[in-house]
Amino acid sequence: MFITPASNIKYGSNPPYSLTDFYNFYPQFTDKVPEIVAQSFLDYANCCLQYRRYHGQWKICMGLFIAHFLTLYLETLAGGENSSADDVISSAQAHGIITSESAGSVSYSQDTGAVTNDLDGWAQWKFTSYGTQFASIAKLLGKGGMLIW
Q: 0.90 cut: is pTM over it?
């Protein structure tokens, strides 16, 4: 396959990146998720993020990508194996911005439209601060001309 540099398509292999690298940068995740989960998201990041696109920002983007997905994973945990179906469903629902709250009769409203209506605008990355940081860097690095002949 012939890809010109102007195509903005990056390919190639990535340098090594391990869970140890991730945990050194984000120790708050150590022992919080099963190793198979953390490794799966590391493998996912390694498939999605090409070093040739991110260069000097590749390691930070790998970490942000993994931290984002591990945070979402942790948010969906619903009390372990004794959880009810309602607990599991509730923990997996999309969370939006709380737009109003009440104390009497316990009521609140949230707006998920800001996230769910923005699929072209990196929607799911807005669910965590790690995702927001990743999207900011990725959008900067993804800019550039694209010419298709």
A: no
